[in-house]
Amino acid sequence: EAQVTQNPRYLITVTGKKLTVTCSQNMNHEYMSWYRQDPGLGLRQIYYSMNVEVTDKGDVPEGYKVSRKEKRNFPLILESPSPNQTSLYFCASSGRTATGELFFGEGSRLTVL
Amino acid sequence: KNEVEQSPQNLTAQEGEFITINCSYSVGISALHWLQQHPGGGIVSLFMLSSGKKKHGRLIATINIQEKHSSLHITASHPRDSAVYICAVSPWGTSGSRLTFGEGTQLTVNP
Q: Do A104 and B44 touch (CB under 8 A)?
């Protein structure tokens, strides 16, 4: 079954404690991207990757890092989380770019205290 | 002003009604997506459009590139259609890498 898998689905953490949200897809997609969703602001793009070792900033990259060492995985790293990073996070993938059909993970709800 | 505007923000309908959700954007685009987000939070892609019209079951999506406008229609609406519908565009000149989203339309279909 074609899918994008995110972990963890829910996490409560404290300010400054490094965390990683993993994202894995099994469709051999080149394009992967991270978004955050906040009430009143909708979905906003954090980082994206067009292929292995090719990543770039989206609209709200501050406080986040990513890496793309393998085609299937695209982890989102919060080196020093802050309360303003409390949000619902989605990973998505698509064949080559965001102009193809998008496949979303189930979301990761992160709370930073 | 947001690059992507959706209307209405909220919509309540009776089962069986014909529903239209609108999306207007202010930039040239290479693609437009319609997404559905159910109360549990998961997001599903409904359509990707670059021109014309697409149909899937009771859902129809149209786009007018010249007018920078797209519509999502639901025929014979059903309570299970209750969800947030989100429009997203991939602007020209971004190599298909960027997505800008509307704030979504909350649809409630009552039995």
A: yes
Nearest chain B Cα distance for residue A96, angstroms: 9
Which has the closest alpha carbon to B22: B83, B63, B75? B63
B23, B27, B32, B33: CA torsion to nearest 10: -60
**Average pLDDT of chain A to the nearest whole number:** 96
Contact state of A102 with B48 under an 8 Å Cβ cutoff: yes
pLDDT at A53: 94
Nearest to A42 among B31, B33, B103 (CB): B103
pLDDT tens digits, B45-83: 999 999 999 999 999 999 999 999 999 999 999 999 999
Distances (CA, A) of B47 to A53, A101, A102: 29, 8, 9
**B108 C-beta neighbours (distance < 10 Å), count:** 12
DSSP B65: T
Are A102 and B33 inside 8 Å of each other by CB? yes
β-sheet with A4-7: strand ranges across? A4-7, A19-25, A76-78, A65-66
